[in-house]
Amino acid sequence: MNRIFRNLLFGVALVAGLASCGSSKSKEPSALIAQSERIAGELSTLVDDSPMFLQSADVEYSDAVLSVAIAFSDTAVSVSDYSESLVQYVLAQYLKAHGGPDLDVVLNTLSSEEGSLKLTLSDTHGTSREYPVAAGRLKQLVKLKPMELNYNDVRTNVSDILAKKCSEYKDAYNATDAEFGIVSSFAQYTLAFPKASAYSNLNQASLTGRYLKVIQPRYEDFGACRPMVEELMTSLSIDGYRFVYTDADGGHELKAALPWRLINK
Asked: Is the four-CA dihedral 257, 260, 264, 265 of positive or negative sign?
């Protein structure tokens, strides 16, 4: 009986020893450490190629959180204007454009570690905002179509941001009022004047030239981020810009459309 008991104790000790050996084995570093360094390199290049739009981008991975902090250099950017839906929509576009083995590693490792992405955006006005995205949601962003990503809310958010330029356009040429709306697939600014004589020296071609001088430099300032901005706009069925001049009586309307092909010349 004592012999059986000793053998049983030996077996328990052996199992405990094996378990101890197994638990003392060093844990492999997360694959996201290397991936965070890779992403940091990509974003650093993007910042360098977009100096008028981006100021910096920092990436690190710790405690199952992939932290990405992006600071804008463009004074026109106000991150308080960016809804969670808009940020996720643009993030989805970025992820889909950068698919492949590396993205698979990021998504699968974050999922297995029950981690998340913490995206922090900061502007030149001292405002900073965090946009956390769980690993499961990141996988959805890659798979879902634009119409499944709060499309209408995103379109409204972008419209609200574009509308903020109304006062600038109104003041530039002493209009009495300026309104914005997405009309027939164009981002349209309608400027009202007391009389048509205020713009009687203009025709469609000269009005087009007037606003190309405004829009083209704006898009050039986006630098390497320009394709992402244009992709956002076109995905929301915005085919360019349109400027409309009208008088108080509405009897003389002048229009100029600036489609992307013209802006990108």
From this structure: negative
CA pair distance 224, 217, nearest whole angstrom: 14
Q: Which two tokens stand for residue 66?
A: 């992939």
CA distances from 241 to 57, 81, 133, 146, 175 (A): 30, 21, 33, 22, 18
d(CA 87, CA 70): 12
137-173: pLDDT as tens digits: 999 999 999 999 999 999 999 999 999 999 999 999 9
Express each pLDDT in 59-105 by its tens digit.
999 999 999 999 999 999 999 999 999 999 999 999 999 999 999 99
pLDDT tens by residue, 31-69: 999 999 999 999 999 999 999 999 999 999 999 999 999
Phi then psi dihedrals of residue 59, to 5 deg: -135, 135
- Give backbone dihedrals phi and psi of 3, rounded to 5 degrees, phi first: -65, -45
Task: Using the structure block, give the residue that is written with the tokens 């060093």.
Answer: 26
* Cα four-point dihedral sign 138, 32, 59, 218: negative
